[in-house]
C-alpha cells in the first residue's frame, strides 16, 4: 500500500545537520580559540569561543543555504548543478567565517590554514551530497524505494518524451500509473474525462503532468483544484522546447522543460505570514469601526426599497480555482441572473440605494468577512464569476491565467485602481486587467498593498467611471 508523505522530507534536515557537524567538528582541529581574547566580550559565556562559533554557524549556515537554495536538489537535478551549489555555498560560508573573525577578533591563523579548513570541509560536504545523490538513485532503481507515483494527461510530443524518460530512467524514481488522452495510442490508459474517475479512485498520486495545450480551461481548472485540495504537485508540459513564460518555474528533465506554478512572493511562508497578519488586522478594524454600525443601517435602507436578503452571496474562483461564497450588500432587485451577468451601465436591475453603494463601493465592504475567513485578501486580483472565468480564459494565455489564480483574490487590486474594474466591454479590458494582476503578483510588497489601499480610497472619493 502506498503511503503519502513517506520520509523524503527528512533528507534535507539530515544533510543540514551533517554539514553543520562537519564545519563545527573540523574547526576544532584547525583553529585554536583558547588563547585569543575577544574584542567586544569578556564574560565567561562569551569567552567559550567554540560554543560561540557553533551558535554563530547554526544561525547563519541555514540562512545562507536558504537564500542560495543549497539543499534544493531534486531527483532530476544534475551533478554539475550540485557542484555549482557547493561552490556558491563555499563562497557564502567563507564570507560568514571571515565576518566572525572580524567581529570577535577570535582567530589568529594563517590564510593557508583557513584555506585547508574550507577545502576539507566542503570536500566532505560535497562528497556527502554526491554520495547521497547516487545512493538515492540506486535505492530507487534497485530497491524500488523513494518512488513518485505520477500520471500524464495528454499525449503531445513533450508528454511522449516524458513517458520515455520515466520508463528508461528507473533511477529517477517515477512510477507512471497511466497516460490519459483523447488521442488513440496503445500506451494510453483512457480518455481525459476518464482520468478524473481514475484519480478519484487511485490513492497516493504524487504528481500530475498536464500537456496543457491539449486541455480545455475547465479541465485545467479541475486538475489544479484537485491537486490543491489533495496536496499533489501539478506540472505542465509544453509542446515546445523553448521557455514559454518566466511566470512558471521551469525544471529540465534531461532536455525536456517541465513547468510548474512558481512559488511567488505572495506564497513565500514569511511573506504569507506578513500579508495574512496585515489582512486580519485591517479587516478587524473595518469590521469593528465601520461594519458594526453600517450593517444595521444598510439593512434598513435595502429592505425599505425592495424585498430580499440584505447580503448577496455569489460563488467566485479563489486561490487555485477553489470556489467560495463572496459577500456583498445586495444592490440589485432580487433575481436569478446576478450570478451570471455583469451589471452594465444604466442596468434596470440596480436599485436606487444599490446605485449609490455601488458608486461608492460600499457594497464590497462585507468582503472583509471573507478576508477574515481566509478566502480573500484585502489586496489581490479580483475574483471573477464562475461563467466568466471560462470565457476570459479563451482570450488569455493559459499559463498567465493559471498563474493569476495562484494567489488569493482581493477586495481591491492594482488592475482596479488603474481603471480595469467592473464590466468587460472588449478583449483589451480583460487582457490589461490580467497584465496588472500578473505585475502585482510578481512585484508584491506590503508597501504596494498599502499604496493600492490609498489609491482605492482616493478613487472612491473622486468617483470611478466604471463603478455602476
Question: What can you see in these coordinates?
Answer:
The protein has 468 residues and is an alpha/beta fold. It has 15 helices and 10 strands. The strands form 3 sheets. A 6-stranded mixed β-sheet has the order 2-1-3-4-6-5. A two-stranded antiparallel ribbon has the order 7-8. Strands 9-10 form a two-stranded parallel ribbon. It has helices at 11-30, 49-68, 79-104, 111-143, 157-168, 192-201, 217-229, 269-305, 352-359, 367-373, 386-393, 398-404, 414-417, 427-442, 446-462; strands at residues 148-153, 174-180, 207-210, 233-236, 248-253, 256-261, 311-317, 323-329, 377-379, 410-412. The protein folds into 3 domains: 8-143, no CATH class; 148-262, Vaccinia Virus protein VP39 (Rossmann fold); 267-462, no CATH class.
Short structural description:
This protein has 468 residues and is of the alpha/beta class. Helix content is 51%, strand content 11%.
List keywords for this structure.
Rossmann fold, disordered N terminus, two-stranded antiparallel sheet, 3 domains, six-stranded mixed beta sheet, alpha/beta, 468 residues
What count of helical segments does DSSP give?
15
What's the order of the H and E elements? Answer: HHHHEHEHEHEEEHEEHHEHHEHHH
Q: Extract low-pLDDT stretches.
A: 1-5, 35-46
Mean pLDDT: 80
Q: Structural class per helix/strand content?
A: alpha/beta
Number of domains: 3
Total beta-strand segments: 10
Helical fraction: 40-55%
What's the arrangement of strands in the largest beta sheet?
2-1-3-4-6-5
Main beta sheet strand tally, sense and closure: 6 strands, mixed
Alpha-carbon distance between the termini?
57 Å
Query: Strand fraction band?
Result: 5-15%
Radius of gyration: 28 Å
Task: Please tell me what the overall shape is.
Answer: flat
Amino acid at each position: 500500500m502506498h503511503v503519502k508523505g513517506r520520509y523524503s522530507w527528512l533528507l534535507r534536515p539530515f544533510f543540514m545537520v551533517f554539514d553543520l557537524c562537519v564545519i563545527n567538528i573540523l574547526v576544532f582541529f584547525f583553529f585554536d580559540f583558547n588563547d585569543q581574547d575577544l574584542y567586544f566580550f569578556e564574560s565567561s559565556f562569551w569567552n567559550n569561543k567554540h560554543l560561540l562559533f557553533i551558535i554563530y554557524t547554526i544561525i547563519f549556515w541555514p540562512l545562507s543555504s536558504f537564500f542560495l537554495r543549497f539543499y534544493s536538489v531534486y531527483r532530476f537535478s544534475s551533478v554539475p548543478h550540485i557542484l555549482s551549489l557547493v561552490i556558491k555555498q563555499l563562497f557564502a560560508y567563507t564570507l560568514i567565517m571571515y565576518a566572525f573573525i572580524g567581529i570577535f577578533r577570535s582567530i589568529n591563523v594563517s590564510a593557508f590554514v583557513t584555506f585547508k579548513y574550507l577545502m576539507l570541509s566542503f570536500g566532505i560536504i560535497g562528497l556527502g551530497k554526491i554520495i547521497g545523490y547516487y545512493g538515492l538513485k540506486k535505492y530507487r532503481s534497485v530497491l524500488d524505494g523513494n518512488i513518485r507515483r505520477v500520471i500524464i494527461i495528454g499525449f503531445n510530443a513533450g508528454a511522449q518524451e516524458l513517458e520515455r524518460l520515466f520508463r528508461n530512467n528507473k533511477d529517477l524514481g517515477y512510477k507512471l500509473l497511466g497516460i490519459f488522452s483523447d488521442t488513440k495510442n496503445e500506451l494510453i490508459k483512457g480518455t481525459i474525462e476518464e482520468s478524473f474517475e481514475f484519480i478519484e479512485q487511485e490513492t497516493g498520486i504524487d504528481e500530475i503532468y498536464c500537456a496543457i495545450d491539449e486541455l480545455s480551461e475547465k479541465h485545467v481548472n479541475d486538475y489544479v483544484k484537485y491537486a490543491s485540495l489533495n496536496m499533489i504537485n501539478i506540472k505542465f508540459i509544453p509542446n515546445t522546447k523553448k521557455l514559454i513564460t518566466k511566470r512558471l518555474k521551469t525544471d529540465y528533465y534531461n532536455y525536456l522543460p517541465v513547468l510548474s506554478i512558481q512559488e511567488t512572493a505572495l506564497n513565500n511562508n514569511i511573506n504569507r505570514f506578513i500579508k495574512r497578519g496585515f489582512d486580519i488586522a485591517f479587516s478587524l478594524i473595518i469590521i469593528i469601526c465601520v461594519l458594526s454600525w453600517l450593517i444595521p443601517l444598510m439593512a434598513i435602507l435595502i429592505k425599505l426599497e425592495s424585498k430580499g436578503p440584505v447580503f448577496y452571496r455569489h460563488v467566485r474562483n479563489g486561490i487555485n480555482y477553489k470556489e467560495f461564497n463572496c459577500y456583498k450588500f445586495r444592490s440589485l432587485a432580487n433575481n436569478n441572473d446576478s450570478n451570471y451577468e455583469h451589471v452594465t451601465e444604466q442596468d434596470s436591475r440596480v436599485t436606487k440605494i444599490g446605485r449609490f453603494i455601488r458608486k461608492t463601493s460600499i457594497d464590497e465592504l462585507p468582503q472583509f468577512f471573507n478576508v477574515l475567513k481566509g478566502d480573500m485578501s484585502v489586496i489581490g486580483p479580483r475574483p471573477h464569476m464562475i461563467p466568466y472565468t471560462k470565457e476570459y480564459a479563451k482570450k488569455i494565455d493559459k499559463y498567465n491565467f493559471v498563474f493569476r489564480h495562484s494567489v488569493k483574490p482581493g477586495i481591491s487590486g492594482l488592475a482596479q485602481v488603474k481603471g480595469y474594474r467592473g464590466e468587460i466591454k472588449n478583449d483589451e479590458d480583460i487582457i490589461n486587467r490580467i497584465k496588472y494582476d500578473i505585475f502585482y503578483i510578481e512585484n508584491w510588497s506590503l508597501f504596494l498593498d498599502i499604496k493600492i489601499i490609498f489609491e482605492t480610497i482616493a478613487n472612491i472619493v473622486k468617483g470611478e467611471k466604471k463603478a455602476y
